[in-house]
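Title: Request for sanity check on Sulfatase N-terminal domain-containing protein prediction

Description:
We are preparing a figure and want to confirm that the structure record we downloaded matches what your pipeline produces today. Could someone re-run it with the sequence below and paste the raw structure tokens into this thread? We only need the token string, no images.
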Amino acid sequence: LYMPFIAPHSPLDAPDKLISKYKNLKDNRKLTRSKSIDRSRSLSSQRKSARPVYAAVVEALDQGIGAVLKTLKEEGLEEETIILFSSDNGGATYAGGGADNFPLRGGKGDTYEGGIRAIAAIKWEGVLKSGTSLEQIMTIMDVFPTLSNAAGVKMRNIKEIYGRNMWPAISKGKKLDLEGDIFFASETPNYGEFHTTVFNEKWKLVQVITSSLLEVNVENQLFKISQDPNEYNNVASAHPKLVQSMAEKIRRWRALHPISGVRSELVPPPGWRAPKDWTSYTIPTNELQNDASLGFGAHVHQLLDFLLKDHGRIIYDCDPNDWEVGKCSSPKVKNH
């Protein structure tokens, strides 16, 4: 069961009783050391702080989670239920967000630790010991294989799963080394600034990509994340070869993604209207054509894919060693 509370999330709102409870809460947050986030705060300095309403939303969230836990206990389902609580990103610390990730740097919309390092808690009554913690890197990609293993359910995925089974680490404290680098990109549709990162257990490279109509600038920031988890010291100038190597990894990773893009939009297309009934918005599979749309056609896919290269993929699921030399073929359609 997936239960998204969609809170806390802007626009912030909560029951009047909770808003009244926190109305006098002062906003004593420090700067995040993320230029775009701190700039948004300074531009909105004359507006009312979102911090009090944010606190009200968090308590409302706590009450909702409490109701779920209480129901599971009353129904005798605690020992049959694995509960995983997590967030999709770091707190929104920009103007209107109300969150605070201190001492981590940044927040939602960038790839500093404050933007991608989220809290999580897991409970399985009678199986997991309370009061323990996992001091290892676990990503959202690890959730599916981890919970599948814990529940003894075989995964039936067709696509390759990049996550790891972290259940031995959670249940027995086993040390599991990373199997490769981890990549992230900021998902916020801010067209003037975009963040990417690649990191391992020792080093982390953050790329701040700013753009205008006439130019694109890439700023590389290197952190020894094992010793500097709050990202105070940019040591890029001291390790130019390492920066070059990690930047190349990001380039290749970004180039494997669809040319059409996967980022959300600030506003819908002109004239678009939301359906009155969202259940009718999705077209059933049996009403779609059997084959994926080929756009220009399969005969030019390989040529275009090879020419576009770093701009993104037309042919998906291509072996990374193949697309650089234009060997990719059109993917076979698989029914899920």
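Thanks, this matches our download. The first strand starts at residue 83 and ends at 86.
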